[in-house]
Structure prediction request, 166 residues.
Amino acid sequence: MNLFKSSLLAVALLATAPMAMAAGTHSATMNVTLTLDNSCTVATTALNFNTQTTLATAIDAATTLTVTCVSTGPYTVAISAGGGSGATFASRKMTGPSTATINYSLYSDAARTTANVIGDGTTGNVTLAGSAAGPTTFNVYGRVFGSQNPKPAGVYNDTVTATVSF
Prediction:
C-alpha cells in the first residue's frame, strides 16, 4: 500500500474506534448566577379640584398614582409638602393671583382623616406602602379646606413630588 492509502486507513480506523480507547475524562461544575435588584418607578395623574365659585365648604377630589416594581419587595411612597410658601403635609398651599394661597391636603383614605395625611412618614403623617411586583395603583384623596373666602379669582396650583423608596 502506498503511504497515502495507509494514512487514510489509519484515520478511518481511529474515527470509528470506540470511546473506551480515550485516555480518561474529567468533569467540573460551573456556577451560574444572576442578581435581580428591585427597581421601582412611580407615575402620577393630576389632581383637579375643577372650577369653583366658593370656598365656604370643603371641596373633595381624588386621583391615583401607580408604582411599578421589577420584583417583589417592600417599598413606600412619600408625597412632598409641595411648593407653596409655608406649606406643610397637613396644609399644603396652592398659589394663585397676587400670591394668594388656597390650603388643601392629601390623604390615603376616602374619609380624609387627619391620621391619614400623606407625607414622608414622619410624625403626624403616613406614606403609601406595598410589596408587589408589577403595577400597584393607589388612590390619593384631596381636600380643599372650607372657610377660605375671600380669595382673588384665578387659577391656583401647586406641584408635589411623589417619591418611591425601595
In short: Helices lie at 3-16.
